[in-house]
Every structure is written in C-alpha cells, then in structure tokens.
C-alpha cells in the first residue's frame, strides 16, 4: 500500500513538474513543485477541511497576487486540545520577477479563485491520535500561500495588476484566527513547510508577540533551511532568486531589524542568518540532502548546461562519487549553519540524511510504522518531545548512506 501511495504522489507531482519545465524554461522556482509532496493524494478515511476566505482582508489590502481574498483551512480542536492552536503556513516556491508572478497569479499559489475548496489534513495536521500523537486534537490551521514571497512582501505593480501583500495576508489571517479563539490560546505552535518554513522563521517572534504572555509559543520550520550556497557552476542561483523576490515584492521593511542592521536584505531572507537570533523557541526539521535545494539551487539545469548532473538530480542512486562528495559538502554547510543555533537549550533540531523535502505534512514521514527515524525516534515524537519539554532534541543523522529509514524522493519517469 505504501508503494502504491508513493507512486501515485510522485507521478502526479512529476507530471506538473515536467509540464512546468517545458513551458517555463525548466525553472522550478516558477511553480510549486516539491512542496506538493507534503500533500496526501490518496488513502482511506482522509480528513478533508474546507477553505475559509478572510472577508475583512480586502479592506486592508491583504490580498493575493491577483487581488482576490486570501484564506485558510481550520479544523477545530476538542478536549484537552480545545484551547491549543497549530498554524501551518503553506509552502509553494516564490516568484522573483514580473513574468513569474504574472504566471503565478493564474494558479492556486497566487489566487484564491484557483485554490482547492477542500484540503487533506494529514501528518502534523491529522486528527487521529495514532497518526499525530501530540497535536491531533488541537485547533489546526493551514494558511494558504498566494503572495510568492513567504508572507513577507508589501508592494504592488499597478501596470501588471500584481499585489505583493504577503505581510498583510499574514496579519489578516492572524487577526481573523484570534477572533475565533486563538487570542486566548494556552498553547500555540507556528509551523510551515519549504517557503512556508522560511515564513515560520521570519514570523516566529511576531507570532509570539500576538499571544498573551502566558501562552506557550514555539515555532517549527520544516524544509525551510535554504542555504546561501554555490551551485555546481560556482554561481549563486538561490541568492539571485532571493534578490529578485526581496527587491520586487518590497520585503526589506518586514525583515528582522537585527539582521538588516548589519547585512543586506537578500542575506536576511536566508534563514541561516536569522535562526540564531530568533528569541522564541524554534525547531529546525530538514533533510541534509534537501531535494528542492539539489534540484533548484545546487544543480539546476541552468548551472548544468551539459547535463552532467541530470541523472543525479533526478535519482540520488545515480550520483557519482564526486557528486556525492559535493553533496556531502552541502550537508557540512548545513551543519555549520545550525551550530550556533543548536547551542541554545530552547531550540530543537532534526536533520536526517535523506533526499527529501517537507516531512511534517506527509503521513508516511511524520509518523507511521516505517517513518524516518534518528536514534529510533520518529519526527513526530521528536517534535512533541521538544514542544512539551519532555527532553531536549538535537538529532543529527550520520552522513549518507547510513540511514535506511529514509523515504527518499525519486523523480525519474518510468
């Protein structure tokens, strides 16, 4: 059953992936790609949760790229979790120039007109104790992502009818949820995957500030530790992308001032320059060989015109020894990036040696009989132990290929 599930998810994602590359010049950043792996596509007795549009958002100009209302999916908690809140910020890449943002506004990543009216809640959003032991009965929310700058921009392009209002969307969603009970939460966890993982870091202390001082508030970033690393050609693919996002969408005023006081705005969009200064307890969940970063940042086609990395990019089992050495160097950069962060007792860490991306929303990677583990501890248990202060969690896997519990992603077409 697991193999069937994985094959369906990968075939669906890859069909979008290939179509996007063909039509848009093989640039993954223009569409939501690997974040799609965080969404369960098949299975039995799935929890489907309806979309709520934020009706008061328009008056605050808190709108999607195309000017439509933003939204979220809320499933109410009960029992011991009735006054606890888990906020999951949706991922889905970014848009860094007018062309990519114009394309994006005709998709669910830029307009609520195209958003699914119902979403599956699985993994950290599941309502079943056997699937989500610590958060199953909390109020669980997925905030939809329709701005293209990790909920952090605030500007517009009138000529192209583009609204870059991620920061306003964030505030409007939080205000709406506070009116529905979150203002008196006893416990709260802000989380996010991929671009949403970046947003969870950017907004972590702001989230703390929205809550009463008595609320237990922590943050979780899943697959959000994007590194300012050289690509295989020696270029800076991701830095160039981030520079476009920050400049186009007016992100600078909404970046943490402790960073912009001494670094340029683009550098302050990179989580590695933020995480050690976040005051609120933060958990970093990341694959050491993050699939999105390998494909879009480290070895994108533009940096590999001869196609030397193509097979390795699609299937890690086809990487040569020199390519694996390059990827081990990337892992070392990631470990260096979290070194100071991990020294704080309040922070948590789970870096497994997998070729994966977004492991908290997928049931098979969050909590299942064969889910990934470090030291026999699954991701869900590690996050729960950290949130509830049951034990400190600073889990770092041994280097590839030592971990046989990984659910590695393979993008080859049959």
How does the SSE layout of this entry go?
Layout: H1 2-23, E1 47-53, E2 71-75, E3 84-89, H2 98-104, E4 118-121, E5 139-143, E6 155-157, E7 162-164, H3 166-179, E8 187-193, H4 195-202, H5 204-210, E9 216-222, H6 237-248, H7 257-260, E10 282-287, H8 291-298, H9 310-314, H10 321-337, H11 339-342, E11 348-352, H12 363-366, E12 373-374, E13 377-378, H13 379-387, E14 394-396
Parallel strand pairs: 3-5, 3-8, 8-9, 9-10, 10-11, 11-14
Antiparallel strand pairs: 1-2, 1-4, 2-5, 6-7, 12-13
Which descriptors would you attach to this protein?
alpha/beta, 16% strand, 414 residues, Rossmann fold, globular, 13 helices
User: Percent helix among the residues?
Assistant: 25-40%
Determine Rg (CA atoms, Å).
Answer: 20 Å
- The overall strand count is 14
* Shape, principal axes of CA atoms: globular
Order of helices and strands: HEEEHEEEEHEHHEHHEHHHHEHEEHE
> How much of the sequence is in beta strands?
15-25%
Strand order of the largest sheet: 4-1-2-5-3-8-9-10-11-14
State the separation between the terminal residues, measured CA to CA. 19 Å
Number of helical regions: 13
How would you classify the helix and strand content by structural class?
alpha/beta
CATH fold annotation: Rossmann fold
What's the number of domains? 1
Q: If classified by CATH, what would the architecture be?
A: 3-Layer(aba) Sandwich
Average pLDDT rating: 91
Tell me the major beta sheet. 10 strands, mixed
CATH C-level class: Alpha Beta
- Poorly predicted segments: 1-42
GO molecular function, one term: pectin acetylesterase activity
Signal peptide: 1-20
Protein name: Pectin acetylesterase
Family: Belongs to the pectinacetylesterase family.
């Amino acid at each position: 059953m697991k193999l069937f599930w994985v094959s369906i998810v990968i075939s669906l994602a890859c069909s979008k992936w290939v179509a996007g590359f063909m039509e848009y010049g093989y640039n993954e950043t223009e569409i939501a790609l690997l974040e799609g792996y965080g969404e369960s596509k098949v299975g039995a007795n799935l929890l489907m949760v309806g979309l709520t549009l934020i009706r008061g958002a328009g008056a605050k100009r808190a709108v999607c790229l195309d000017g439509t209302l933003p939204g979220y999916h809320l499933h109410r908690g009960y029992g011991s979790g009735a006054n606890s809140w888990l906020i999951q910020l949706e991922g889905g890449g970014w848009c860094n120039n007018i062309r990519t943002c114009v394309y994006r506004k005709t998709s669910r990543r830029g307009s609520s007109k195209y958003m699914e009216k119902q979403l599956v809640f699985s993994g950290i959003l599941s309502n079943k104790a056997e699937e989500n032991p610590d958060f199953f009965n909390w109020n669980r929310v997925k905030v939809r992502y329709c701005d293209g700058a990790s909920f952090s921009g605030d500007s517009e392009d009138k000529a192209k009818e583009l609204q870059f209002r991620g920061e306003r969307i964030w505030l409007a969603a939080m205000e709406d949820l506070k009116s529905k009970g979150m203002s008196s939460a006893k416990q709260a966890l802000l989380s996010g995957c991929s671009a949403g993982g970046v947003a969870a870091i950017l907004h972590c202390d702001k989230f703390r500030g929205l809550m009463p001082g008595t609320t237990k508030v922590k943050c979780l970033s899943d697959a959000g530790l994007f590194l300012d690393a050289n690509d295989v050609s020696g270029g800076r693919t991701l830095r160039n992308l981030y520079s476009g996002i920050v400049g186009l969408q007016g992100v600078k005023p909404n970046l943490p001032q402790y960073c912009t006081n001494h670094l340029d705005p683009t550098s302050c969009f990179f989580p590695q320059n933020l995480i050690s200064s976040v005051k609120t307890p933060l958990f970093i969940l990341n694959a050491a060989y993050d699939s999105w970063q390998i494909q879009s940042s480290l070895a994108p086609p533009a940096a590999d015109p001869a196609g030397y990395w193509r097979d390795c990019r699609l299937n890690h089992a086809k990487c040569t020894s020199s390519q694996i050495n390059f990827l081990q160097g990337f892992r070392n950069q990631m470990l260096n990036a979290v070194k100071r962060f991990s020294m704080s007792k309040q922070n948590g860490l789970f870096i497994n040696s997998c070729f994966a991306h977004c492991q908290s929303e997928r049931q098979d990677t969050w909590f299942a009989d064969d889910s990934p583990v470090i030291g026999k501890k699954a991701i869900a248990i590690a996050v729960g132990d950290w949130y509830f202060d049951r034990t400190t969690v600073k889990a770092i896997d041994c280097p590839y290929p030592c971990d046989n519990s990984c659910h590695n992603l393979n993008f080859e077409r049959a």
